[in-house]
Design a protein that fits this description.
Blueprint: E1 2-7, H1 12-21, E2 27-34, H2 38-48, E3 52-55, H3 61-67, E4 73-76, H4 79-85, E5 92-95, H5 103-111, E6 115-118, H6 121-138, E7 142-144, H7 147-155, E8 165-172, H8 182-185, H9 190-194, H10 203-211, H11 213-226, E9 233-237, E10 243-249, E11 254-258, H12 264-272, H13 286-289, H14 304-314, H15 318-334, H16 342-353, H17 362-377
Helix pairs in contact: 2-3, 4-5, 5-6, 6-11, 6-15, 10-15, 11-14, 14-15, 15-16, 15-17
Bound molecules: NADPH dihydro-nicotinamide-adenine-dinucleotide phosphate and magnesium ion.
NADPH dihydro-nicotinamide-adenine-dinucleotide phosphate binds at residues 8-14, 34-37, 56, 96-98, 101, 119-122, 146, 199, 201-202, 204-205, 263.
């Protein structure tokens, strides 16, 4: 039996993880966490009976306690994520919180030798080098949950020699604004941007998909997970979202992983690896599908993607700045404080004023993150 901790169990990935895990006696839930949503967290706790639950917003801890029996321990605050991520009894930690909030817990889990199933891509974007070096030292396995990275990981099973990989072909749905020009993007609303054509996801990643920053973050995520250079990664827009990504090898052979658009599949694979479990998930109907198409992304209309490549090439603290500026700008857009087209502008300006520090420590990363957020909030970027 694998004992699982889920950080961010009340989100889109967290709830889908619980849904799929509930079907298998091979897994038990050791701990769950939420930020605010204690109603759902309590419901999940009563159903899955973890030993411990955490709410990062401490002011909600007392109300959460009232909802639960005494044998479920309640813990709270930011530090609670680290507590859960390092529980002695845990076999694997699913990191499905959103944003930089996952970085410290991910590092703590890895430093204590835990395997992690990683959905939280912002952690690798901001702290990829630290996370991968820590995993090398402790021997922890980082199992990707993001569908593209799960696909690449699956295509690489059995490839012992990293030098055999020529290129990674990262697929993108193109988001709700595929085919739009700059003029039409000026008018889009929050509601338009949240309507993803293929996937139903949390609000932040839905906006990232609309700006194509999601793909930019995924390019950086892939760089760390698979140790490839920026020029070895090509983004292909594939509107059907059936091919979840591909690997081209040095002999010209290409392997792809295909599957229905359902995150429960990569979640299950990450948690059951190296095994595959029988699953009752939607299958692809190839005849109904008819064709699979691929096109080049529009780098001009969607500048977030080239900005991410740029941040990756600069390295050091720059990807953390890209991430912090993006998180802040997306939040402002969701609150209707800025227009959609302002998102890449705020990111670019934040990158221009930042003085990159190479080989950053955790403190350097958190400082670059904080400074970027404050600069945007103080409206200092002209
Ligand atoms: P959601 O917004 O749906 O869920 C986020 C989860 O994290 C919730 O449990 C939330 O708690 C918790 N949370 C939010 N803010 C904080 C914080 N500051 N500290 C601690 N916990 C917090 O996000 P998603 O599930 O969509 O995405 C999670 C991660 O997975 C992201 O990094 C995303 O990029 C990645 N991902 C998501 C995919 C998807 O299909 N959704 C696909 C691939 C990757 P509460 O509910 O209480 O607010
Ligand atoms: Mg993805």
């Amino acid at each position: 039996m694998k004992r699982i901790v889920i950080l961010g169990s009340t989100g889109s990935i967290g709830t889908q993880a619980l849904d799929i895990l509930s079907k298998y006696p091979e897994f038990s839930i050791l701990a769950l966490s939420a930020n605010d949503n204690i109603d759902l967290l309590a419901k999940q706790a009563l159903r899955f009976r973890p030993e411990i639950v955490a709410v990062t917003n401490s002011s909600k801890a007392a109300s959460l306690k009232e909802k639960l029996p005494d044998d479920i321990k309640v813990t709270s605050g930011k530090e609670a994520l680290v507590e859960l991520a390092t529980l002695r009894k845990a076999d694997i930690i699913l990191i499905s919180v959103v944003g930089i909030s996952g970085l410290e817990a991910t590092l703590a889990a890895i430093q204590s030798g835990k395997d992690i199933a990683l959905a939280n891509k912002e952690t690798l974007v901001a702290g990829g080098q630290l996370v991968m070096e820590a995993a090398k030292r402790s021997g922890s396995k980082i199992l990707p949950v993001d569908s593209e990275h799960s696909a690449i990981f699956q295509c690489l099973q059995g490839t012992a020699d990293q030098k055999a990989v020529d290129k990674i072909l990262l697929t993108a749905s193109g988001g709700p604004f595929r085919g739009f020009d700059y003029e039409s993007l000026k008018k889009v609303t929050v509601e338009d941007a949240l309507k993803h054509p293929r996937w139903s996801m949390g609000r932040k990643i839905s906006i990232d998909s609309a700006t194509l920053m999601n793909k930019g973050l995924e390019v950086i995520e892939a760089r760390w997970l698979f140790d490839v250079r920026p020029e070895q990664m090509e983004v292909l827009v594939h509107p059907q979202s059936i091919v979840h990504s591909m690997v081209q090898f040095v002999d010209g052979s290409v392997l792809a992983q295909l599957g229905a658009t359902d995150m429960r599949l990569p979640i299950l694979y990450a948690l059951s690896w190296p095994n595959r479990l029988q699953a009752d998930l939607p299958l692809i109907d190839f005849v109904k599908l008819g064709s699979l198409t691929f096109e080049k992304p529009d780098f001009e209309t969607f500048p977030c993607l080239p900005l991410a490549y740029e941040a990756l090439k600069i390295g050091g603290t720059m990807p953390a700045v890209l991430n912090a500026a993006n998180e802040t700008a997306v939040e402002m857009f969701l609150q209707s404080a800025i227009d959609f087209i302002e998102i890449p502008k705020l990111i670019e300006k934040s990158m221009i004023v930042h003085k990159t520090k190479l080989n950053p420590t955790l403190e350097d990363i958190l400082q670059a993150d904080q400074e970027t957020r404050e600069r945007i909030k103080r409206d200092e970027l002209i």
